[in-house]
């Protein structure tokens, strides 16, 4: 079984300027590969290669996959915002009617990977793609690392947590935020950030070891963007891996073509989010 996280360059103006990144985990939580891609066809081809024709792969895409609303925001985004979790702001209008994620889904379908709103836990015979939110995942992991995800006023704790500004700000601020994010990944149980087959060459088209990179303000914004893409792809891969393992807790907010997002959540945090979803009439599983 393989778990692939895709940090898709999906926002208007990004597709032709920024690369997307893929990160791949095995069943032990090892990062076994990553790569940078340009077109959706390149992404689909790389994912197909990681699957190696076995039909056992879960892809988590860090981008809005189902965008039914012509204007405004999706219902699941509004709920995430109310929970003080980072959310996308997506409508068909901002994409001139065709989100790039739909092009990606079409390309993935051609190689046998179908969109779902709920990958099955522990089931090997599935080849699916689901929407995740790397920023929300990072915030949950930060909360878990602080040991405060199991008690207290979780709504207040989430609201008070500073949002990681990986893509905005000056280079010094971005570098600090990136180092903090890598540190969270490094200390996430079940995720093995360093493996022997990856290198410290940031400009390599594939197999870059996040744990070996020297992140500082001397890097260009473009170089920082590459690191952020790897972080987001790793968070996306971890999200689907954790869900499949069925051990540390996860939730799917929303459903089907209306928009659904898979996030990690355990214990009291999971229970609180579940109750908030039910109170809002939002499907949650």
Question: Keywords, please?
Answer:
alpha/beta; two-stranded antiparallel sheet; 8 strands; 14% strand; globular
Strands of the largest sheet, in order across it? Answer: 3-2-1-4-6-5
Helix content: 25-40%
SS class: alpha/beta
Q: Given the C-alpha coordinates, what overall shape results?
A: globular
How large, in whole angstroms, is the Cα Rg? Answer: 17 Å
Quaternary status of these chains? single chain
* Tally of DSSP helical segments: 8
Instruction: Provide the residue-averaged pLDDT.
Output: 93
- Quote the beta fraction: 5-15%
How many β strands by DSSP?
8
Report the end-to-end length measured between terminal Cα atoms: 23 Å
Order of helices and strands: EEEHEHHEEHHHHEEH
Question: How would you characterize this protein structure?
Answer:
- α6 (171-186) packs parallel to α7 (221-245).
- The strands form two sheets. The protein has a six-stranded mixed β-sheet with strand order 3-2-1-4-6-5.
- A hairpin with a 5-residue loop joins β2 (20-25) and β3.
- 36% of the residues lie in helices and 14% in strands.
- The protein is of the alpha/beta class and 285 residues long.
- The chain starts with a strand and ends in a 6-residue tail after the last helix.
Summarize the structure.
The chain has 285 residues and is α/β, with parallel strands linked by helices. Helix content is 36%, strand content 14%. Strand 2 (20-25) and strand 3 (31-37) form a beta hairpin.
Secondary-structure topology with pairs:
Layout: E1 2-7, E2 20-25, E3 31-37, H1 40-51, E4 57-61, H2 75-82, H3 100-110, E5 114-115, E6 127-131, H4 134-145, H5 154-160, H6 171-186, H7 221-245, E7 250-254, E8 260-264, H8 267-279
Parallel strand pairs: 1-4, 4-6, 5-6
Antiparallel strand pairs: 1-2, 2-3, 7-8
Helix pairs in contact: 1-3, 4-7, 6-7
